[in-house]
Amino acid sequence: MKTDIEIAQEAKMLPIKEVAEAYGIGEDDLELYGKYKAKLTDELWNQVKNREDGKLILVTAINPTPAGEGKTTTSIGLADAFTRLGKKTMLALREPSLGPCFGIKGGAAGGGYAQVVPMEDLNLHFTGDFHAITSANNLLAALLDNHIQQGNALQIDTRQILWKRCMDMNDRALRNIVVGLGAKADGVVREDHFVITVASEIMAILCLANDMQDLKERLGRIIVAYNYAGEPVTAAQLNAVGAMAALLKDAIKPNLIQTLEHTGALVHGGPFANIAHGCNSVRATKTALKLADVVVTEAGFGADLGAEKFLDIKCRMAGLKPDAVVLVATVRALKYNGGVPKTELGAENLEALRKGIVNLEKHIENIQKYGVPVVVTLNSFLTDTEAEYAFIRDFCEERGCEFALSEVWAKGGEGGEALAGKVLETLENKESSYHPIYPDEMSLKEKIQTVAAEIYGADGVAYAPAASRALARIEEMGFGNLPVCMAKTQYSLSDDQNKLGRPAGFTINVRDVYVSAGAGFVVVLTGAIMTMPGLPKKPAADGIDVDENGKITGLF
Q: Are 73 and 296 in contact (CB under 8 A)?
């Protein structure tokens, strides 16, 4: 059996100019990065922005196993299936982070015969967007420390600095550091921290900004610290906005690549859904909706994270209205949620399936609370059995959800036609009445309580003293009307990754809260969630290599 990277490397890609032509995009509207990658110009958006939108399909999932459940693979295969059925279709996906590529989860180019290509480029440096975001983030950090060193005219309290440095790699040793050691000329000694680039507020800003003007306004609102009087100090006050925007001027433009079957894919931005808002850029999604009849997008991790943030943050800010949600599950993950060890997931176990399917049930209920029709799909594995499929199909249909098997990993678009047919049937027969789960006017604690109770199924929320103080301060500053971005483990509906299935009788523990004023949301840290992940004992990097001909192996 061929590996994902072997399939991708053997693919016959079309020149990206030919892929673009199928969507009416001329060469003048492309900024080429070689033969197979391009950015879309600002001029293109101005040409298409008044067109009618296509249909928007969100792909999300149940709570995953550590290896993920195939949301991206399903998204890509579904888009190819729509193309095969004669629909003008485009993908809107996130870019992969180097952290998971070299850590445990691997890349984010899909898998098997449902991939976007060039796969190695996408999973590594791509068009440099993440490097630009990292540079802009760290420029702001450098300007902040330099301002303090050069006399501190803004009276910044070095004990109340919020802005963190970042890098796009899992490096736990950088979570908590000390900077400024050495001579007087080497800076002011203080505690500092790193986050992974995908958790940076600049990543969120890039993904939520409509254009350069909006980007600059958001960058200016970033709160980097408080002064001795307890007042916020912003990036605009440090005169950092222009230089940061200059670093991001190309990164803000969506990237166009293709699937193995030559469906266009706008792959842009990459915030994690467990610690950020987990959606691709607003610009990419909106552009795709103007260029295609059907747009397939995905949001990270389970529906309790990515889908909740897509529906409560991205759609609210961007005025998007999804027409249907595809909820991805696997037999393996359902058995995992039913208590089966990872080593035994390949064996038929209907009792464990019965226990674990309550996780799927909760996610179905959650999506329906937003007024959006749900289609459930099973990402098939060779170890699955017909009895397991039949049990899950009956379960879904009893709850008013369409159901289809997805075989896109093995068959590409052909393996997604049954799912595409169910989605089209849903679009024709079930109207979406999308609405967020809470209004802007609610207090921040009420918003947190709503997500905890309605989406996670928690009995209540417990706040550390620091979190309660932070919430009060944020509301005093006038940010109480912002949505909340919950940072939580992806492996459980609770904030404890060991509570699988559909836990009950638990409390969500909020340990800290901070405002991302530029992004436009309030980040709520729960449980033991980390904004700088670490590498596992045996990282994926152990198996990655490149030969004398430049051919990469081990990347997945």
A: no
